[in-house]
Amino acid sequence: MMAVATFEHDAELMLRVRDGDAQSFSLLLAKHRGPVIHFLYRMIQNQAVAEELAQEVFLRVYRSRASYEPTAKFTTWLFRIASHVALNHIRDGKHERHQESLDGEGTEGIGRQVASRAPTVEQEMVRESRLAEVRRTVESLPAKQRAAVLMHKYQEMDYAQIAAALECSESAVKSLLFRAYETLRAKLAHLAGRG
Amino acid sequence: MKSTKGSACPVERGEEEILLRYCAGTLAAEGAAQLEGHVTSCSRCRMWVQEQQMVWRALESWELEPVTADFDAALLARIAREKEARPGWRGWWERAVGAWSGGLEWRVAVPAAALALLLAAGLAVTNPFRGEPVETAVRLEAREIEQAERALEDLEMLRQLEPPEEDKKL
User: Fold this and answer.
1) Using the beta-carbon criterion (under 8 Å), do B55 and A188 form an inter-chain contact?
2) Does the structural domain A2-100+141-194 have CATH classification 1.10.150.120?
């Protein structure tokens, strides 16, 4: 029931954007900005590039307002655009040029948090190393598998929505997820023992 | 070979996808309860579920940086710049696309048809074949005649090779 209400609300906002209501666009932006940037960040693993790509995504949403029809859930349509932008970015090889050093960026982020949360140095090093490993493993997945896992895990999208976003069949999504999680299990399961 | 058809074990049946849905909490309550009973007694499924839950927790531990404070302002500025740069044709195009998606109206169809006619006329005027030298055209015509003659000769030869009608009846 909640999902239906959200679906109608987002679609309704987008229809208002189509009619020239800038306020509705701001509402959609406020609601979906975070999930889109986080998805792109996890795909590309560079915050600055992720935000730049997210700008492109919302710009495309705005440009498409005249042709928008609420035939699918708004988030599915939005993530279809986001997936396109991310996969094109990776395909064009811009990914490698922009990618930050995992260790470098991780250390910087952790450094800030050490002061506020004050865990022991050892705990922090373990956490940092775990996080770097998770990021490396996700990054090692083929781009489409990565996109499918990120939408499944973090956006809680079902197979049909992921299929619509990636423009493939539901069985293809099942296969993508199966292979991706198989890789993740093989590479990350040992972390269980490290607490 | 051991048959896995009647087995209750998703791993044996090659249906790990059901375990994935169980871990994601998207399995219906009844199915989840049944599977839970099986998972507690089956070491392979238990291992699968534990590893998947580990992956889940590892992914959840991935913290993110906050979004830049001026993200919205930067985006809205880009939109404003774009609007300023192309107000005329963009507005027309959006209206046209909007009308197309909701059913083509005559108010759009007529200008679109007029535009298509103009484009066709423009192409006719700048036809790249218009200025073709006469010699080239004559050479092409001569080659076509030659090809047609050769095709007729080939047909004649085939007819000669065919057995007479009486032979066909035998």
Assistant:
1) yes
2) no
